[in-house]
Amino acid sequence: MTVTALGAAVRRKEDHRFITGKGQYTDDINRPGQAQAYFLRSPHAHATLKKIDIAKAKAMPGVVAIYTGEDVAADKVGGLICGWMIHSKDGTPMRAGPHPILAQGKVRYVGDHVAVVIAETLSQAKDAAEAIVVDYGVLPANADTSKAQKAPEVHSEAPNNTVYDWHIGDKAATEAAFKAAKHVTTLEIVNNRLVPNAMEPRAAVGEYDAGNDALTLYTTSQNPHVARLVLSAFIGIAPEHKLRVIAPDVGGGFGSKIFIYAEETVCVWAARKCGRPVKWTADRTEEFLCVAHGRDHVTHAELATDAEGKITGLRVKTIANMGAYLSTFASSVPTYLYATLLSGQYAIPNIYAEVDAVYTNTAPVDAYRGAGRPEATFVVERLVEAAAREIGMDPAAFRRRNFVTKFPHQTPVIMMYDCGDYKASLVKAMEMADVKGFGKRRREAAKRGKLRGLGYSTYIEACGIAPSQAVGSLGAGVGLWESAEVRVNPVGTVEVLTGSHSHGQGHETTFAQLVSSRLGISIDNVSIVHGDTDKVQFGMGTYGSRSGAVGMSAISKALDKIEAKAKKVASHVLEAAEADIDFKDGKFTVKGTDKSVDFGTVALNAYIAHKFNPQELEPGLKEGSFYDPTNFTFPAGCHICEIEVDQETGVATIAKWTAVDDFGNVINPMIVEGQVHGGIAQGVGQALLEGAIYNKDGQLVTASFMDYAMPRAHDLPSFDVGMTVTPCPSNPLGIKGCGEAGAIAAPAAVINALTDALGTEEVPMPATPQALWTVIQKQSRAAIAAE
Amino acid sequence: MPTVTLTVNGRSVTADVDARTLLVQMLRENLHLTGTHVGCDTSQCGACVVHVDGKAVKSCTTFAVQCQGAEVVTIEGLAQDGKLHPMQEAFREHHGLQCGFCTPGMIMAAVDIVNRKGAVDEATIREELEGNICRCTGYHNIVKAVEAGAQAMTGKAPARQAAE
Question: For the whole model, what pTM was predicted?
Answer without folding.
Answer: 0.97
